[in-house]
Specification:
A hairpin with a 3-residue loop joins strand 1 and strand 2. The longest helix is centred in the first third of the chain and has 18 residues, at 30-47. This protein has a four-stranded mixed sheet with strand order 2-1-3-4. It is an alpha+beta fold. The protein contains three helices and four strands; from the N terminus they run H-H-E-E-E-H-E. The chain has helices spanning 8-24, 30-47, 84-92, and strands spanning 53-57, 61-65, 79-82, 104-107.
């Protein structure tokens, strides 16, 4: 069953809430964090459509994106996985792809979504 689309107002509110608590040095509420992650993954899939790369942010979500050859079964050949805080920092431009280091685990020759980031402030 597909997850419901997060509206722009709800997604932007979740991003704003995440930024506010991050700036205050407080841990965000799980629901806000989940909505912010899912919204940014949704935006990534919309702005970089395709099935060449799977981006995973456990436990909140995963999307396939980026043009190129897709896959139909099993583990995709191009996978990016990171934690929620790192993903949101990348998605909002608070962290550059090149500076993410070991917080982002990427496998496969196409496992790079830097051309589509940040999702805000472009």
């Amino acid at each position: 069953m597909a997850r419901a689309t997060i509206s722009d107002p709800d997604g932007n509110a979740a991003i704003a809430a995440w930024r506010a608590v991050r700036d205050a040095g407080v841990t965000p509420a799980r629901g806000q964090l989940a909505t912010a992650v899912r919204y940014t993954l949704q935006l990534l899939a919309e702005r970089a459509p395709g099935h060449a790369v799977e981006v995973r942010v456990p436990p909140f979500g995963a999307v396939q994106c980026m043009p190129g050859p897709g896959h139909t079964r099993g583990t995709p050949p191009n996978v990016i996985e990171t934690d929620a805080q790192t993903w949101l920092a990348l998605a909002t431009g608070a962290l550059a792809w090149a500076d993410a280091g070991p917080a982002v685990r990427a496998s496969g020759v196409r496992a790079d979504v830097s051309a589509a980031l940040p999702l805000f402030g472009r």
